[in-house]
Specification:
Layout lengths: L1 H20 L77 E7 L8 E5 L10 E9 L4 E4 L1 E2 L5 E8 L4 E8 L12 E10 L7 H10 L7 H8 L3
Antiparallel strand pairs: 1-8, 2-7, 3-4, 3-8, 5-6, 6-7
Length: about 230
């Protein structure tokens, strides 16, 4: 037991000696000198020169010619930035089909219950068109045919043979009896021919599309505005 007490006292004394020997932190030393900079890297190679915007063939020479290689686009005698071409724009929306209008003079006729015309006088290939027909009254009114006409006491029917281009218009009273129209009552027969070839459509397709677009085909003004006839 006595020995154990001696050992404990010895350890306490040693700890006190170690604590008393611990010094305070010293001041920081001065910063050392900067090291030697590294060697610069090698410069990259220059890129190739671009092509002037007016240089359509890329030969570096302003070409003023009279053929398709001419780079003087604005024809001012100088090839410069004013001749530069922009990129092509997006394709526009398809416009209306090729539409033609033709008038047959009705003032040349006397009294009639039937009129005959040749659609070959209107278009080159009658089979390749859809048609709308109108007739002008001396009052200034334009009626759609087939349909009822002036005063609604008679009407017109339209018959076509597109293989030979014949157009026949018959007039009937309300009892479906042939009606004699006085000569000079109407001034013009108006034919609107709508080409089909660049659409791949039929006459029925064209009429359906006009209806879907809200165009009243019995109203000439609406048709003319839609096709740009005025």
């Amino acid at each position: 037991m006595k020995t154990l007490k001696l050992v404990s006292m010895a350890m306490v004394c040693m700890a006190m000696v170690l604590v008393s020997c611990s010094g305070e932190d010293g001041e920081k030393g001065m910063q050392g000198e900067q090291g030697i900079p590294g060697v610069d890297g090698i410069d990259g190679t220059d890129g190739a020169d671009g092509i002037n915007c007016w240089d359509l063939n890329g030969n570096g020479v302003p070409d003023i010619t009279i053929d398709e290689t001419n780079e003087d686009i604005n024809l001012d005698g100088v090839v410069d930035a004013l001749d530069c071409q922009g990129t092509d724009g997006q394709n526009g929306v398809d416009g209306n089909a090729n539409v033609q209008e033709h008038k047959f003079n009705l003032e040349l006729f006397g009294n009639y219950s039937q009129l005959n015309f040749d659609l070959n006088d209107v278009v080159d290939d009658p089979n390749n068109y859809a048609y709308l027909y109108y007739i002008d009254h001396t009052s200034g009114l334009r009626y759609s045919i087939p349909g009822h006409l002036f005063n609604n006491n008679y009407y017109a029917r339209v018959f076509t043979n597109l293989d030979n281009g014949t157009l026949t218009i018959n007039f009937y009273d309300l009892s479906d009896v042939a009606f004699q129209v006085p000569g000079g009552e109407y001034t013009n027969l108006v034919v609107v021919a709508i080409e089909l070839s660049n659409t791949g459509k039929t006459s029925e397709n064209v009429m359906s599309e006009l209806k879907a677009a809200g165009v009243d085909t019995s109203d000439y003004n609406a048709v003319a505005e839609y096709f740009g006839l005025e």
